[in-house]
Design the sequence.
């Protein structure tokens, strides 16, 4: 090999080293996060799926059973199907109400001249309130013996005796939906108000010149221009609704006088509550609980796609 060839090879290697050196730094800086994510997020997710293919109580040896947990879950577990039905019913109760009230409240607050900051603060306070406090408040309000609602209704003669709000199948679901609405209404209001701030005021001025009234402007201008925010809120509400757990668990977790798993006749049992019960409360069937978790993951993907397809503008649907 000639001297010139050796110099060319050495120069090429040095050039590659200089080019590769700066490119290494982003990978090196992101390596701690990637390793932490793989150890504490990715590995548990993969291991949970592997565990769903086994029968395991957390102590003894694992027994591989294939997809029998999934088959039993969807064909021979009426309690799971009931928990899914309960979750969908409560979602149908609180998602439309929260969306409509959040939009109307945001529109009204946005056009206030005075007191706007006070209204925003009052409505956001429930969102930052701890779930335990929310469960205590609503358990106290709807308790059949000492509940504030029954005391008021009996005092004014609208009821002869206290009503079992938390023991009736439909009213128990309605109370849980009311808890979700009360907690998330301020968040929806803030998101909608953020969208209203970026709408050009020239559009409203042009509509006013053309003789558009307040209601017509709201329906024809404000709502269409907030379509993307509505899509975002619908999709995230569906995802959060399928993971509903805090409200029903705290409502029937002992504050109302007697701890009940799933509420009266399991009419308040949600999918996540079923998962927690199978994992840590009534049973320790970790493989079966993992099957519930992955079934819920598939349901979340399906319902999220459906909600996006139904609410997104036509030009965004691909």
Sequence:
């Amino acid at each position: 090999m000639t001297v010139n060839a050796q110099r060319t090879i050495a120069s090429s290697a040095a050039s590659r080293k200089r080019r590769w050196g700066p490119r290494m730094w982003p990978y090196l800086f992101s390596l701690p996060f990637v390793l932490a994510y793989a150890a504490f997020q990715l590995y548990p997710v993969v291991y949970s799926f592997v565990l769903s293919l086994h029968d395991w109580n957390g102590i003894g040896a694992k027994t591989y059973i294939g997809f029998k947990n999934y088959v039993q879950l969807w064909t021979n577990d009426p309690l799971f199907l009931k928990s899914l039905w309960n979750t969908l019913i409560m979602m149908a109760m609180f998602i439309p109400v929260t969306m409509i009230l959040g939009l109307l409240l945001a529109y009204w607050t946005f056009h206030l001249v005075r007191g706007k900051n006070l209204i925003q603060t009052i409505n956001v306070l429930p969102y930052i309130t701890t779930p335990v406090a929310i469960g205590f408040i609503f358990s106290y309000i709807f308790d059949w013996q000492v509940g504030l609602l029954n005391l008021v209704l009996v005092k004014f003669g609208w009821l002869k005796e206290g009503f079992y709000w938390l023991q009736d199948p439909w009213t128990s679901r309605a109370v849980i939906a009311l808890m979700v609405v009360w907690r998330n209404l301020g968040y929806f209001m803030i998101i909608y108000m953020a969208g209203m701030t970026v709408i050009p005021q020239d559009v409203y001025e042009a509509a006013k010149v053309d003789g558009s009234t307040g209601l017509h402007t709201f329906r024809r201008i404000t709502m269409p221009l907030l379509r993307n925010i509505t899509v975002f809120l619908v999709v995230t509400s569906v995802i959060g609704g399928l993971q509903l757990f805090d409200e029903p668990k705290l409502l029937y977790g002992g504050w109302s006088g007697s701890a009940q798993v799933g509420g009266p006749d399991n009419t308040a049992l949600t999918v996540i509550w079923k998962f927690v019960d199978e994992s840590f409360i009534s049973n320790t069937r970790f493989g079966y609980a993992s099957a519930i978790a992955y079934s819920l993951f598939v349901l979340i993907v399906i319902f999220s796609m459906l909600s996006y397809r139904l609410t997104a503008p036509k030009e965004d649907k691909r």
In short: Residues 3-52 form the longest helix (50 residues). The chain has a mean pLDDT of 85. The chain is about 70% helix and 0% strand. The two ends are 59 Å apart (CA to CA).
